[in-house]
Input
Amino acid sequence: MAVAVIIALLVLGSIIFHLVSPWWQTPLASNWGSIDTALHVTLWICAIAFVALNLFLAWAIYRYRHRPGIVAHYEPENARLEKRLTLWTGIGIAGMLAPGLIAWHEYVTVPANASLVEATGQQWQWGFRFPGRDGVLGAANVRHITPENPFGLSPRDPHGRDDILIESADVRLPVDRPVKMLLRSKDVLHDFYVPQFRAKMDLVPGIVTYFWVTPTKRGTYEILCAELCGTGHHMMRGTVTVVSGAEFDAWLAEQPTYTELLADARDRATRLAGADISAVAPEGR
Amino acid sequence: MATVTIADDLTPLHHPKTWIGKYVWSLDHKVIAIQYSLTAIAIGLVALVLSALMRLQLGFPGTFDFIQPEQYLQYVTMHGMIMVVYLLTALLLGGFGNYLIPLMVGARDMVFPFVNMLSYWVYLLAVLVLVASFFVPGGPTGGGWTLYPPQTITEGTPGHQYGIVLMLVSLALFIVGFTMGGLNYVTTVLQARCKGMTMMRMPCSIWGIFVASIMALLAFPALFVAAIMMLFDRLAGTSFFMPAIVSMGQQLGHEGGSPILFQHLFWFFGHPEVYIVALPAFGIVSDLISVHARKNIFGYRMMVWAIVIIGALSFFVWAHHMYVSGMNPYFGYFFATSTLVIAIPTAIKVYNWLLTLWRGDIHLRVPLLFAIGFLFTFIHGGLTGLFLGNVSVDVPLSDTFFVVGHFHMVMGVSPILVIFGAIYHWFPLITGRMWNVTLGKLHFWITLLGVYSIFLPMHYLGFLGVPRRYYALGETAFIPASAHGANESITIAALIVAAAQTIFFANMIWSLFRGPRAGHNPWGAASLEWQTPDVPPAHGNWGPRLPVVYRWAYDYSVPGAARDFIPQNEPPADGERHHPT
Output
């Protein structure tokens, strides 16, 4: 008896919780409205099933609770009812699956005009690389990684020379231009996740993964790592700032290319080498 | 009847002569079942404490100095692994499987009693190796229960040196132990059923355990090879799962391995594992509902086929855990479709449970309360699974608290409610005593309401985008202060639920010694395990002669019958209505 009432109250409580809870999706800042639509369709169909099934449960418990003299009905099966329920379930499932697959089709179909951005992950920081003037990202391999070449660009690939390297966790993206995010990890699994974009994908060492997104709202958004990557997982943060196309182009032009960084590193190495000699010389080594 | 003498022959049963032979090196399936259950519950309590510690950190970050990121990740990892493998799998198959199969199919014992005993002792060894990992330098592994390489065996992850090795060895041992048990369960069901016990007369509990055992025999080898391959990567420097990487500034010697290969192997085990836990729970709950609603399980044949179909389909859905893993994205179409199709037989089971209650004579006893709790949490958890299976909807939700909320509802809370219901249901048979009803109800209400207030808000934190496996959320602009409040209240609810389990243990221990005598078949159940000559059943179960079965396990409230149940071994009266099975 009490259990019937409480099951019904739990259903009611869940609906109220859904309506008044302050926790819901962050406002969308990308083209992935289709993902949100698929989510909302799924939510509605599931919510109807949740309410209907549990209220039926509560009603059955109340209506057929044991009382003296009551005998249960004897009915081993009812093939017609079972078939009808199967059919309705199938329709509900199809109703969810269709928008889900349509959104997925969009998700895996990168537009031809998407520009390339590479996000690199390592424990526990982000880095970014843009292809430079030639529009091609140079070949890279973790075997080339040294303190002077943190992105592991192949020294032999001329395409890499003009690549723009962002050795910071803060990156900018142009608004309303599709971007194909190429993802590369130097060590373990990571996952590039901006809640406002909805999109995410793992970074997997050894291969390059990708997803695409068109930022649609200017603003600064946090990048989280969404795949456990060790003790610093929760601190592997970054930001992406979505700006106008012109601002983005101006910002990108200020960032150093691989060639410039190499030259810097060489200068520094020369200076350091000089400093080293003067430092150790007095000890007479 | 000369043909049944082999089964009826009592001489092969080695009746133990000493206390040690009876309770320690026991060949009796019922004692082995108790050994399995107590070990599983003991290690499960460790996992419960770990979850409380983990919640303390999430609810009150910075308050407890002894919980650093290393410890937090170790709690998360060990909690998950222990609960899924060492508690749920061991308790449902090793515990309930062992106890119920011979009694419910009318056998004297498992067909290989010695292998059965060995299965338990290897399981115990696996548990001890697992526990040992808490005491090695660096502590247990903190790589998440999914143990994804490369991080589990590289620097930056707790326990990457020794903890992970013990974890993998323990898993391999567990699988060896389980294989011995599983072969026994399957063979016993197929070969040792008593006269008249056709497959389609077996109770749903046995169907669930039987199909889950077959699945486990097929799925665990994938985890076994993954564990061995990772051991090679860790100890011998091979590169099965290890590509060339730079770990903390050091070039490692590995080259060419695939981290995603591990994920495929893990989830080829891991998804069927969900159903290895769920199917026995599905079966048991069917019987709890039927017995206490005094009504046959609705659509028995459909229920059996649903179990078989779910079992088969569950081998074709594993990559729905990997939509954003970087595997070929075109797999998404297939795995989303197969995953949502599996919802159909699952939904049929839910309908049939509800329709079993409908027009029943519902006795709201404690086992049925837990079964009703299961229906509520399973409907919730099953439906949220559709979000995560529906590929593009999974993209924003994966690796958030939505996932944590979902899988705890569907494969944490739901099966555990069934396990509690089953313990209350069969306790009178196992011990011959009844438990205290008031304490049982108290335990039920605190547990059900508590777990819902833990896991419902988690789904909403997930919608918001709060990531899982975070030691601390820190300052994150999109996470409002109220979300931290939610974390606090979740922690408080979790501590209450954890503490409330003492009611259960107190009730069971008190009842074991002081509970009123249960007598024979206190629930008026029709299935065979309640029809033994002795309560609790003696070694050999059936006295001098095996039972003969004449009907299915669900003859409740049959029109014209004298009582509202007819035991399976009662011969048919003249002119009696027959169910086709």
Observations:
- Residues 25-239+257-531 of chain B form a domain with the Cytochrome C Oxidase; Chain A fold (CATH 1.20.210.10).
- The beta strands of chain B are 246-247, 250-251.
- Chain B is about 60% helix and 0% strand.
